[in-house]
Amino acid sequence: MGRSRDNRRRAAAEAVVEAVEGGLAELIPDPDRARAWSLLIDGAPQSHVDLDDPAHLSFEYQRRIGHVIDLAAPPGKPVQAVHLGGGALTLARYTAATRPRSTQQVVERDAALVQLVRRELPLDPGARIRVRSADAREGLAKVPDGWADLIVADVFSGARTPAHLTSIEFLDEVRRVLRPGGVYTANLADGPPLAHLRAQIATAAARFAELALIADPAVLRGKRFGNAILVASDSPLPLAELTRRAASDPHPARLEQGAKLMDFTGGATPVTDTSAVASPAPPPSVFR
Questions:
Q1: Each residue's pLDDT tens digit, 49-72
Q2: CA 185, CA 83: separation in Å to the nearest integer?
Q3: Which of 40, 42, 75, 92 is the most exposed place for a label (fewest CB within 10 A)?
Q4: Which residues are CB-contacts of 260 (< 8 A; sequence separation ≥ 6)?
Q5: Please, what sign has the CA dihedral across residues 39, 148, 104, 54?
Q6: Does pLDDT of 1 surpass 50?
Q7: Residues 106/267, Cβ–Cβ less than 8 Å
Q8: What's the confidence (pLDDT) of residue 287?
Q9: How far is CA 63 from CA 90, 210, 214, 216, in A?
Q10: Is the pTM of this model over 0.70?
Q11: Three-class SS state of 283
């Protein structure tokens, strides 16, 4: 009976709909989890948050980034992390839950979205998460040299990554903020013929000694539009464990690295500020 009443109460929960700078934001209650919500912007899914279990990652691309966060340092060790793009602060909450006492900075351009999330999905007051409303690259420029163990880039404007976050000059700022051995991970989105993704790998290879790419095999084959997670460092990556976790996910993914990843670029050249363009827009069918 208690479960039935909980389900009825949950079904009666209302979505929160509010205009933000990036479009129309919707917070949709999750019928299966008592205090969980999905964030959509103009109908495009952005984040999922479970306030009772911030270590729960519903979106497959966020689980893949979660694996990177898990392996960026020994289990449970606090880290200093920068998140470029905030959404509902899912990955910052995840880091705080799995690595207590971590110090985190989130840079999210959409101040109205930040206010909505803070009001409706409040952060744990004990989490050391600072949220700054600024452009991702401008916010990164204010972080001290060598401050971060981990930088997570998950920035989309109108479902596209802005051009100025795709260049070598942007990665120069990432390298400046990372301490030696630090890890950079980015959510990249592309579809056939994968020109954007190939160019992003070539760009990262121009600035990082160690690279890996995690994605659904169908995305890597150019069969459909989807997300690919870039992982980069100046030190060796935990490739075996990343491979195992990606393969054992409910939505299995493949990890590419080394010569095969360089072959994947197909001779693409690194992107500069002068040549940069935004990532391609997803086809409408992606969100149906």
A1: 999 999 999 999 999 999 999 999
A2: 10
A3: 75
A4: none
A5: positive
A6: no
A7: no
A8: 52
A9: 11, 21, 11, 13
A10: yes
A11: coil
Q: Is 52 helix (H, G, I), strand (E, B) or coil?
A: coil
State the CB neighbour count (10 A cutoff) for residue 2: 6
Helices and strands (DSSP H and E) totals, the chain? 10, 12
Strand residues in 30-139 grouped as ranges (E): 36-41, 44-50, 80-84, 103-107, 128-132
Q: Which of 79, 263, 72 is nearest to 184 (CA)?
A: 72
The pLDDT tens digits for 70-117 are 999 999 999 999 999 999 999 999 999 999 999 999 999 999 999 999
Q: What is the Cα Rg of the chain in Å?
A: 18
Question: Exposure pattern of 102-133 as b/e (b: 16+ CB <10 Å)?
Answer: bbbbbbbbbeebbebbeebbebeeebbbebbb
